[in-house]
Design a protein that fits this description.
This protein is an alpha+beta fold. It contains three helices and five strands.
Length: 106
């Protein structure tokens, strides 16, 4: 996979993060917090690779807020040495299997 989780986590722990407006709006709307998103970045599992995304490839992380699953979409801008948080949400079982890692077949 293209996403270097160690670099992503290192940059995030240094506060080298851009919070996209969409992400901030969704975090508020979905009763998440920046702290929860940062925890998912620190401890989450990369479950989908969007290496074809443009302008930069991105990836989907799965983490947990207690028993609540949380997905975070991030990109790593290696040139700028920044992590961009694109969105965050609680995955729905209508779109994901009960493991919250596997998309349901449509």
């Amino acid at each position: 996979m293209w996403l270097d989780l160690n670099k992503l986590r290192s940059l995030a722990s240094q506060g080298k993060i851009i919070w996209k407006r969409h992400a901030l709006e969704r975090i508020l709307e979905r009763e998440l917090s920046r702290a929860i998103v940062l925890q998912v970045i620190a401890d989450g599992e990369l479950i989908e690779d969007y290496s074809e995304d443009r302008p930069l490839p991105s990836g989907l992380l799965l983490g947990w807020d207690g028993k609540r699953p949380v997905h975070v979409v991030v990109t790593l801008d290696s040139d700028e040495e920044l992590v961009a948080v694109i969105t965050a949400y609680e995955p729905a079982t209508e779109h994901f299997e009960p493991d919250f890692r596997t998309r349901r077949k449509e």
